[in-house]
Amino acid sequence: MKKRRIQLQKFKADFLWGGALAANQAEGAYLADGKGQSIIDILPVGQKRKRSLKDPQYAFEQTFDYYPSHQAIDFYHRYKEDIQLLAELGLKCLRLSISWARIFPKGDEQEPNEAGLKFYDALFDELLLYDIEPIVTINHFDTPLHLAEAYGGWQDKKLIECYQRYCEVIFLRYHTKVTHWITFNEINMILRNPFLAGGLPKTDTDRSTIFQAAHHQLVASALATKAARKIDPTMKIGCMLAAGSVYPYTCNPKDIQAALEKSREQYFFIDVQVKGTYPYFAERYFEEQDIHLTITDEEAAILAENTVDFVAFSYYTSRLETVDHELKKNLIEGNAMASVRNPYLKDAGWGRQIDPLGFRITINEIYQRYQLPLFIVENGLGAEDEFTAGQIHDEYRIAYFRQHIEQMAEAVKDGVDLIGYTTWGCIDLISAGTGEMAKRYGFVYVDLDNDGRGSMERYKKDSFAWYQKVIETNGKEI
């Protein structure tokens, strides 16, 4: 009998190589053309920002010298030149977000702001002019500030109605220009940062309130999926998580169980969005954590009937879990995800360790769990770049991406159905966690410092030409 040959998969011909930005970290122009304030607009820079994220009342009660989101990198006014650069880079897609407060300045109005809608018309048209597909996140850590102040953020069911109205407006307006939509950025981050991800304005919000807010986001996401399919069935709706496999520190069964439980927490909400119901372990988890949710029969039906088309995720590093209290004193924290320090990994700065093989492991773990097409919408290295005479030699960034793309290719060979890959911050932008500019991710350097000073001129880094070749060869030359 003739043996059947196994054909290893390469990147698809239509694989979406791209970059990623967020409105609140790039656009600036924070009150231009009728835009309202977002929760991000009251956050300062540096340690004061870190304190504000943990203690939102501190941000509400203070007036700071500098608010990074107010000008950001001024993408709002400079998007044409930036898109020209991204076209030169060869991007097939750009993941970005719509600022909810540009469309509904307070969030709870009945009618949208036409000037805000026109901006995104122009932005999407400019991208399509260069054959760059917009991948749009509907809510990327920028709930309108009024909704936090008036309703306490997503803990109030009123926000479901507000979000639904917002989604219907943008779906009707842009369905011929946008195919792939992501309902919430890193939805599991509400457990780590309730203010940033859920607009919950109180310090030390209890777990029941956080999970209730997340439940309201899940219902809102399902209703958005339902609306999108009614308006234009060709649109694809995805969910997104902040991902990273959780390893046990040792082969001690207690460490393995601890890692399993931490991993379950990561996938909790994505399970609902993909499978239409809370995971089988939820009942015990809620009981042991003293979490009490109100879930109506109607909401349960909405979740069950409106599951997503694809799973998007960010990956920066893996995590390590143990029951050893001494080891747990040596923590490293990046992207708001605390972990025991892994002795086998190199530090990348800013509380992250570099784990390229963990990328492949994570991709496989997610695909095995959900069996839906995957879209990697954030991956990258935040680093301090040295700007000398208009040049930035960032070999460390090239090395980081090369190692991760190699492992992504291995995951494709494993059989994972992968839609695309968008590197985070393809143009330098302000950090969500610290508001800094020094933590740079881009292939394009923006002349701006942590205090908002600089020319804002754009300069191509060495990594620009490197990623250009990667895209040109569809990942064959890395």
TrEMBL record:
Entry keywords, A to Z: Glycosidase, Hydrolase
The organism sits in which domain of life? Bacteria
Its Gene Ontology cellular component terms are: cytosol
Record GO biological process:
carbohydrate catabolic process
Identify a single GO molecular function assigned to this protein: beta-glucosidase activity
Which residues act catalytically here? 378
- Tell me its family: Belongs to the glycosyl hydrolase 1 family.
Supply the PANTHER family for this chain: 6-PHOSPHO-BETA-GLUCOSIDASE, GLYCOSYL HYDROLASE
Provide the protein name. Answer: 6-phospho-beta-glucosidase
Tell me the organism: Enterococcus termitis
